[in-house]
Amino acid sequence: MVKRGNDEDPPDKRPGEEGAPDASRGASNVLQFPTPQKEPEAEAEPAKPARRVPGSAPREAPPAPVPLDNELVQRLRERFGDAIGEATIDRKQAIVLVEGGRVREIALACRDDEKFEMLVDLTAVDWPKRGRRFDVVWNLYSMTKNERLRLKAHVAVGESVPSVTSVWAGADWLERECFDLFGIVFEGHPDLRRILLPEEWQGHPLRKDYDILKQDTEWVRAHLGIESGQ
Amino acid sequence: MNAGQEAAGFGTAHGIDTTVLGENEIILNMGPQHPSTHGVLRIKLRLDGERVVDSECIIGYLHRGVEKIAEHRSYPQFAPYVDRMDYVAAVSNGLGYCEAVEKLLGAEAPPRARVVRTILAELQRIASHLLWLGTHALDIGALTPIFYAMREREEILKIFEKYCGARLTTHAFRIGGLQYETYDTFERDVKRFCEDFAQKIDQYETLLTENRIWIGRTKGVGVLSADDAIALGVTGPVLRASGVEWDVRKALPYAAYDRYQFEVPTRESGDTYDRYLVRIAEMRQARLICLQAVDGIPEGAIMARIGKVLKPPPGEVYHSIEGPKGELGYYIVSDGTIQPYRVRVRPPSFFNLQAFHRMARGAMVADVVAIIGSIDIVLGEVDR
After folding, report:
1. Most buried of A24, A223, B104, B284, CB within 10 angstroms?
2. What confidence category does residue B147 fall into, taking pLDDT thresholds of 50, 70 and 90?
3. Whether A94 and A136 share a structural domain
C-alpha cells in the first residue's frame, strides 16, 4: 500500500490556509517564471465570485453572444450575400451562420482565400423543437493566421448538406459519423455509410428523441444472441 | 497547399472494392483481434502478393456512446467518463474537459492548479509515449524496449497514484482546479524522475535509433506528406513528423504552458522513423517542462470558487489541448441547465487513423503493423 504523503494533514484543510509554506517549494524559485507579475492578477480573477451564491453564474460569466462584424465576415458577405447569416462571438470564438446548401463553396473560399487550411471538427447538435432541427457545425482552423472559425448551418430532417470531402479530405469520416449518429445526409460524399454503429442498425442515437436506454434490440438479438442488456 | 478542386476523391478512405480482384489479389482481414491493432481495430487489406493495394479501417467495436451519456450527466459527473476515452492518457483527457467547461463557465483555475495540471499532463505525455514506444517496438520485433519503457512508466504511475489514488483512469482534476493538494514529496518525486529520465531516453535510443534493423523496418515506411496531413486534420507527433511545426501548446497556450521554454520537435520526411524520432524528442521536451514547472509551483488556492452546482450560461465553446496523440478538443453546448446539451469530443486518434489509408498504400503487409504502431492510436478514443 502506498502511503499518501499528506496523511497527517486534516482532510479538508484548504491549501491557501497553510501557515508556513513548504520548504521544498520555496518562494525564491518563483522568479524563474518569465511573467511572475501575472500571478496576482490571475489569482484575483477566480476569487471574485467568492461571495456569490453557489450555483449562480460566476460574475465574469461570458456575456451573451455579441454580433461579429470583422473584415472576414464582410468579405464573406460581399461574396456570398444572403448565404451568410448572423455572425456572432461567443466566449471569444467566432461563429458564422451559413446557408446549408452553399456550404461547399463557402468552405472552399474559407480554405483557399481565408487560409483556413484545416477542418478541425465537424459535428451536429439537435434542437428538436426548432423547425430546422439540426445545427451542423464545421470547426475550422487557420495555421497561417492562428485563428479559429466556426461555421454553422440549420438543417431540417431529410434536407441534405453538400459534402466538404473535396475541400478537406478529413471530412470523410466526420461526415460518416454525423450521418451515423444524427442521420444527416451529406450530398456528394463518396461513401456515406455508418461508421461507429453496425451497418444494419436502426435509428440515430445522438438525436434528442432517441432515449438513452433505447437500442436496436432487434439487431442485438439477431447478432449477439442475447436479450437487451439494459 | 492549395490542391484546389482536383482534391476531390483524394485521400478518402472509401470502402474498398472487394467484388473484382486482380489475378494475384486477395482480401485480408486484420483484426479486430489482431495483437498489433492495439485494441479492436479491423483493417481490410486488399493485397497484391504482399503489397497493399488498398485498405479500409473498420472501427466502432468499442463504441459506448460517450457523447450520449454526457447529455444525461451533470458537468462534474461526466468528468470521469473522459478518462475512459484515451485510457492511456487519462490526465490529458481530464485536463481538456475541465478547461473546456471552465471556459464555458467563464472561470479560470488558480495559478497553482494550472501549474500542477501542466506537470501532470506532461508526465502523462511521457507515460503515453513510453507505452507507445514499448508496444511499437514490440510490434516490429524489438522485444527489449518495452521492459525499459514500462519500468519508467511505472514511476510516473506511482506519482499519479500518490497524488490522486489512481494509476490509469485518474480523474486527477476537477472543474475549476484540483481536488487534491500535492503530497509532501511531490516535487522531489517529479524532480528525481525527470533527472534520471534523460539518460533513460538515451538508453532507449541506443537500442533503436541507429539499429540497422529498426531503420530498415521504419525508414521510408508509411510516408505522409505535410499537405495530406493538414487536409486530413492530422495533428500531434504525426503532423510534426511530416514537417509541420504546429503544437496547440505553442499556438493557443492553455494551462501554464506560456510560462515555460520548450521546443516543438519536427522532422521532414513523415515516415515511421521520423514519427519515432519526434516522439522521443517530445519526451525530452516534456521532461524539461516538468523540471521548469516543478521548481516554482506558485502558492495559493487550488480551486476557483465556482459554486457547487455548475450551470454554465447558454452558449457554446470549443477548447482543445495538445494531448499525447494530437489535438484533443471538446465542443460543449450549454442550454443553461446543469447538464451539457451536447458534448462533442474531437479525438486525435480518429483523425490520425483516417490517414492510415494514405500511409499504407504500396506498403508491405509487415509494414502495416509498423504503420499502425507509429500512428499511436487508442481505440477507446476513436470509437468513444
Report:
1. B104
2. very high
3. yes
CB proximity A93 to B under 8 Å: yes
- Mean pLDDT across chain A: 74
Q: Could you give the angle at the alpha carbon of B82 between the alpha carbons of B150 and A185, nearest 5°?
A: 120
A195/B306 Cβ within 8 A = no
Please give the tally of structural domains in chain B: 1
Q: Does the residue B52 lie in any domain?
A: no
Record the pTM: 0.81
Query: For position A23, what pLDDT does the model report?
Result: 39
Per-residue pLDDT at B238 exceeds 90: yes
Q: Does A35 touch chain B (CB under 8 A)?
A: yes
Q: A44 at the B interface (CB within 8 A)?
A: no
The enclosing domain of B185 has a CATH number of 1.10.645.10
Q: Is A141 helix (H, G, I), strand (E, B) or coil?
A: strand
CA distance B134 to chain A (A): 26
* Domain identity same for A109 and A181: yes
Q: Which of A4, A59, A122 to mutate to test the interface with B (most CBs of B within 10 A)?
A: A4
Q: How many CB pairs below 8 A link A and B?
A: 224
Per DSSP, the three-state class of A50 is helix
Residues of chain A with pLDDT under 50: 1-59
Q: Are B315 and A197 inside 8 Å of each other by CB?
A: no
> For residues B233-260, b (16+ Cβ closer than 10 Å) or e, as one string?
bbbbbbbbbbbbebbbbebbebbbbebb
Looking at the structure, tell me whether residues A178 and A208 fall in a common domain. no
- Residue B320's pLDDT is 92
Q: Are residues A121 and A207 in the same domain?
A: no
Mutation site, B55, B232, B245, B345, interface A, largest A CB count within 10 A: B232
Omega before residue A34 within 30° of 0, cis = no
Mean pLDDT (whole number) for B272-299 = 91
Q: Provide the residue count of chain B.
A: 384
Please tell me the total count of domains within chain A. Answer: 2
For A2, the closest chain B residue by CA position comes to B162
Assigned domain for B141 exists = yes
- Specify which residues A96 forms β-bridges with: A87, A151
Average pLDDT of span B29-52: 82
The answer to whether position B33 is within a domain reads: no
Residues of chain B contacting A168 with CB distance shorter than 8 Å: 231-233
Domain that holds residue B326: 66-358+365-383
Indicate if A204 and A192 belong to the same structural domain: no
Task: Give me the pLDDT at residue A53, please.
Answer: 41
> Whole domain around residue A89: which residue ranges?
66-196
B318, A93 Cβ separation under 8 angstroms: yes
